[in-house]
Design a protein that fits this description.
single chain; about 140 residues; six-stranded antiparallel beta sheet; EC 3.5.4.16; GTP cyclohydrolase I
């Protein structure tokens, strides 16, 4: 479309729910993840994928909060793989202490260790207990 319109730039934004079946040990059912892709074509291409992952911890009654993960890629990565990586980091972080800072740091460390990711931003928000606390980390890797 950019070429056909002889435009200097083009922008696309897509939001969609993504459903993924739960692991057998977590009970049957589907989990819903809110996703967003936004990209621009100018002098260089830019594509960011955002993913909202609900956080439910064993000691909390119901949903504890969420992690919003935004990434730019060096290489293609499947959405299921990114969700799995985020969930694994959340489980590892919640085994120690479940604070927004520790979970955010754990997610940042997991993304830094992933060669497919060139940039990321993570926000973890705790919605439990009638108040909201959050932590954010952002890094450019290459």
């Amino acid at each position: 479309m950019k070429d056909q319109l002889d435009a200097e730039a083009a922008h696309l934004e897509v939001r969609f729910p993504y459903f993924l079946e739960r692991a057998a040990e977590e009970g049957s059912g589907m989990d819903r993840y809110e996703c967003r892709l936004h990209g621009s074509l100018q002098e260089c291409d830019d594509l960011v994928m955002e993913l909202n992952v609900p956080i439910t911890l064993p000691e909390s009654m119901g949903r504890w909060g969420y992690a919003q993960v935004s990434v730019r890629f060096n290489e293609f990565i499947w959405l299921e793989d990114l969700i799995g990586m985020v969930q694994q980091a959340i489980r590892a972080g919640s085994e120690r202490t479940a604070s927004v800072e520790s979970l955010c740091g754990q997610l940042g460390d997991a993304l830094k260790a992933t060669s497919e990711v060139s940039w990321f931003r993570v926000e973890v928000e705790n919605l439990a207990g009638g108040c909201s606390t959050f932590a954010t980390v952002e890094s450019t890797l290459s």
